[in-house]
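[RESIDUES AND BACKBONE]
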Amino acid sequence: MKIDIISVVPDLLNSPFAHSIMKRANDKGLLTVNVINLREYTTYARAQVDDYPFGGGAGMVMMIEPLVNAIEALQQKTNYDEVIYLTPDGETLQQKMANTLSLKNNLLMICGHYKGIDQRVRDHFITKEISIGDYVLSGGELAAAVLTDAIGRLLPGVLNDESSALTDSFQDNLLAPPVYTRPEVFRGWEIPSILKSGNHKLIDAWRMEQSLERTRQRRPDLLND
């Protein structure tokens, strides 16, 4: 899979993809992430990419021309399955969406900044708008990193144990059950005895029960879904 990300401040995305699972995905040739500096596609002086909004109001808006120049230049090289805009008013990112996007080959992400991007870009180029939550960030870079991580870890071969992703929270509309590791007893706190039984059928049933109970307590809306 290839993910291209258009950003006004590309340096913000250096670290998220240079370590841990995302680095492993890149080293294995399973995921390529390219961060594109939007300022390289502007024709305005001093690499300007933003301007005042028509009609007045606070803040600045990302200009249409640099964004269209960047998008069209990238589209000449790559046929994108989705052109994604990271924005607070987009569809909320959920596990099912990450699952679906992980099946694509090429994605283009656009990081918003300032007060957002010229609406005409959204009207004519964007195929999917995604939010990572009901709050506002300084820019879309962190959201792009979150989305890329959620997608990248699902690619076959990225995780050492591919079945691990299938038991994550939200994969079956349930929260994951509690987990334990050594030592069996710490400060008098013991792990549940069922986990030492060796009876995997009973252990699976216990984990399902725990998942259901945790979901009932913390996210009952998931059970309604």
Observations:
- The mean pLDDT is 94.
- The first helix runs from residue 20 to 27.
- The helical segments are 20-27, 64-75, 95-101, 119-124, 141-152, 200-218, 220-224.
